[in-house]
Amino acid sequence: MLTRQSNKAALSQPVRAEQHRSVPLRLILVAPFLLQIFAAVGLTSYLSILNGQKAVNDLATRLRQEVSSRVEQSLENLLDKPWMMNQLVVDAIERREITLDLENTNLKRDLFFLQIMRVFKDTNNVSIYLGTPEQGAMIGGRLYNGEIVVGASNKSTDYKSLYIRANEQGQRTSVLFSSTNPFDARTRPWYKKSVQAATPVWSDVFADFANQKPLASAAYPIFDREGKLLGVSNVTFYLESISSFLKNIDLGKRSTIFIIEDNANLVASSVDESAFIASNDPKIPPQRLVATASSQVAIKSTTQFLKNTIHSCQQLTRLPRMNFIYRASGSFFKLLPSKTSMD
Hints:
- There is one protein chain.
- The strands form four sheets. Strands 1, 2, 3, 4, 5, 6, 7, 8 and 9 form a nine-stranded antiparallel β-sheet that branches.
- The protein is an alpha+beta fold.
- It folds into two domains: 77-238, 2-Layer Sandwich (Beta-Lactamase), CATH 3.30.450; 251-335, no CATH class.
- The N and C termini lie far apart (124 Å).
- It is 36% helix and 24% strand.
- α2 runs antiparallel to α5 (240-247).
- The protein has six helices and 15 strands.
- The longest helix has 70 residues, at 25-94.
- The protein has helices at 2-12, 25-94, 107-119, 189-197, 240-247, 297-310, and strands at 125-131, 138-144, 147-153, 160-166, 172-182, 201-202, 206-207, 214-223, 229-238, 258-260, 266-269, 276-277, 287-288, 322-326, 331-335.
């Protein structure tokens, strides 16, 4: 009896079927569309980022090209003018319009140099001098405290530099400055370098003894038909005229333009950075600033990147124009080797 009752109780209990969780039909129908939407949105975003980056790169490239063209054109214009001034002297000597006898005062010659300085006054030229092998005499025009004057050093000045006021006709009126130290054109670096090269040359960049501003000289040796040296015409000008131009280019606050020599020495820049490091000791001449030691991060890091990339800045002038992306700082920059060497 007990056995029958247990079986009956067991049979009377409901049988629970095994339950399985099923995926909703709605999800099965919607999932493929959602995957397509997510894929499309992701791809679109990716392509948009790529296109945006390409647009930024294209814009940066066009800006660099425009600025490079302006800089190159202006540099050629600025650096061609000293040679134009020298050529005027050479042509005048060949036509015998000015005499090479620098030991004696010559009104026509004084007026000639004054007129050259007046014509090229806005180019930041400091002086134009003609030096001769005889006693190292010198004559020319000079910008002195904003005034164009005659500069002379010969027997009559005891071979010391003399700056003299002159009227519109070139007649000397009064002495402005007389140096206490002898001046011999033959000992000047620009004279010796051009004579040794027997061809027009640029001097090394040097500092003005009065204000420490960077200067450069364009020296032109003059020979007769037999190859005898007649003299050297030399134009000295301030490099700050280049920096002034670079500063006037509207590039935005985060852009910098700078010019370096193939030894990595800084020449000019669009920021306030001197090409020289002044010494507290007046007996020690100022030293050239190497761009890798610049206080400006853009100049310092870019020059160091170039040195690491091409191993030597002396190869810069032999390289083609190149665009770089400095990924460490996310910076774009363009290398523009100049055809005009300041060596």
